[in-house]
């Protein structure tokens, strides 16, 4: 029976390799490790704004092929924090390749990791990130009452009359016992999982290649094992509540109550674990990284097209061959090459501008974090990423769309002059205001952002911006094909600025009144003449 169960489990692991999970992600729990972790030494921690703009949660669900809750939390943190060090990349690639090629080895490690896939495992970071419950000032009384209980039981056969004192002490202990239940329940989730985590880490670390991830981990494992016997009590507690018969549970509960085992052991364990936070986090991170590497191997196995990026530090260069958006099925690929120059995209709605900008941002994130990009080949700079794509009104704070946009871009302006090369992703800059001021403000802002080794990828409907920024930006566009009664997009990136405007033609296709179309075309021609005069005067 056990053999059949293991075989079914192994077969499931083999079949699921390379496939997207079919279970919903609990981001409140997945984010716990990231939200409480000190990532101040990272090259960059991605902001919530940038993550929202780039549909980060959807990206995570696509990338996540982990086997444990620990792996999920670790992968999420890795994707949100860009490391300044690339030293581990080569080592990790060797391990990822082994996971892809050696199915027996991979399944063996996966089997270990799946033991940490219970929901309870999400609470493990609390053992090294949260403040632990402190014992009450009168904690010494608990120990005294426990000693008195033992003493009274020893004396009872000789002095039967002390049974009354024994009952009184038991009633007091009963009150303390149930008072402590709320403290106990807080750690019944995490402490048994720590025992399991430590055991799995020790097992995985026996592999000579996997041990290179953290050669000193064995010391952390041994230090945690110093508290192992005390923690076994909480593991037993968890099993008693779920698996054993009521009679055994009741007997054990009576013993615990009589001798105040729960509060004495709980606060004793917490005191010791409080001094072992670093070791617990080391073990957590080790297991999380192993699971993450299997996830990357699975991701690559399931992708028709991916590549390992070439990361440069000298030039702000983005060269991508057949790059695509990983979340869009049958996504049209595009090729682009920019060196020390920003990019301005023009084109109509739905032509692909914003999707392309998001593709650049997402590939930067995955390339700089998990060394995987969705393209045939790509060169990326070591660069920080900021965005202003998805902006909305803040009605609760009485802020309009335009004001929110102004504040967001102001932060970008501040980042642009801090001496750290950055990539700024913008969609329809200043679209919340009138045409004249949108173009004027957009030109001045984009020129400012593109200085100091920064890169800007911006989309706009304002063709005039292309004329103004031609010396500072590479111009690209997306276009559509319009016949008599239909509109088609090829979603292909094309060099140069957009020459044809089709907005009024689209009105015509959608059966707007003839008089509306005629008047609109006449006004458009007059405005074009005016714009041309202004442009000529500026050039002169």
What is the CATH class of the largest domain? Alpha Beta
Task: Write out the CATH superfamily name of the largest domain.
Answer: P-loop containing nucleotide triphosphate hydrolases
Helix content: 55-70%
User: Which CATH architecture of the largest domain is right?
Assistant: 3-Layer(aba) Sandwich
Give average pLDDT, whole number: 88
Counting H and I runs of at least 4 residues, what is the number of helices? Answer: 24
CATH fold call of the largest domain? Rossmann fold
Oligomer: single chain
Name the descriptors.
single chain, 540 residues, alpha/beta, Rossmann fold, 3 domains, six-stranded mixed sheet, four-stranded mixed sheet, 24 helices, 11% strand
